[in-house]
Amino acid sequence: MKLDELINNIESRVGQRKLYDLSRIRAMLDILGNPQKNMKYLHVAGTNGKGSTSNFLFNMLYAAGYKVGLTISPHIIRYNERIIVNDREISDHDFVRIGEIILAKEKQIEEQFGYLTYFEFITVIAFIYFKEQKCDYCVLEVGMGGMSDSTNVIDAKDKLLSLITPISMDHMNYIGNTIEEIATQKAGIIKKDSMVITSNKDERVLKIIREKAHEENCEYYDLDDIKIFDLKIDAGKSSYSISFLNSEIRDIKINLAGYYQIYNSALSVAGMLLLKEKELVDISPEEIKEGLLRAKWPGRMEMLSDNPRILVDGAHNVDGIDNLIKNLSLYEYDKLYIVTSILQDKEHEKILNKLSAYAYEIVLLDWDNYRKTEIETLKKEAQKYCQNIRISKDIVGAVDELKKVVKTDDLILITGSLYLVSEAVKSIKNNL
Fold it and tell me: Which residues on neighbouring strands pair with residue 42, listed in sequence order?
């Protein structure tokens, strides 16, 4: 089987019904010898920031000399980005080889459970690969929710730490219509006798996480336990110092832009210091700082081009857009041109309302994506808040048109969907 054939198979599984008791993926893993068992996991859930938090954790452990597995979603360029061990993505050969093993065994569960979903299939590949690679630690980013996410099949005894990034309204069609329902799903990753750290500030969310941690006899920490000071931030990098438990680390530097990356990295540092305090990892302050500095996260406040200036950010829900708007204060520009398309399961009118307050012009993309909001709906909503609306069929065409009018001091922002950012990174970099 070729790589593109396997990817086509995986993508055909989009939209399949999930089993919220995880019985299907458990049955599949059992047939495969339960490769997820007897490993050491750090598990990251949340609405925004879980990908970069996972990346920070991964890089710190790697800097300390461990063999570390990382699984994330979505990818920006290639599927291989979703499964990494140390400094290498899974190879095309291994991705296909393991995929073929799963396809051959999957027939044994078909009658009772049906085929694996998109995320279940990729998660099973990751578990098999991490076991084969004999990883010392594995960092798992939750895909959606937590309680019923395919990564949540790991045993309590194998989980060292649960980290929960800020929770807000997103994926309401799947995990709940209130912040409390969504928080309950996210808190579902908390397993018995482990440890929990969260960077949430909403007391409604904190109450649910605290109660779940208490119920599972877990140690619990939040931002009240983490002191961040000496903060310096600009459009390209940030630095700060942190105090947590019995440790203090000064002059931490990160190369990821944005206020929210301070909290994401601080959450991951607190997690690492907690594991160190419990003698579950051996890591020095210097290795922590080295790992944070080497962390990169494409598609998040990333400047793709300087002429014209093109900034991309994967904000795709109201909370993410609020963070993006705050981060725009780090940039100087005359006119802001926004290129966007928002998925149908998002609060698209609220997002357009917020973006319109800062936009000189909004370009709406009528692109080919099965989850897109219909262009006439977006146009009608955007016209309520912004006078200058344009429609384009593809990202390259949108940028080419804007190049004719933007000046040196202007800024083009592409946002609204990680799928859109992925397309922008692939298309624009190839056409600069």
Answer: 139, 161
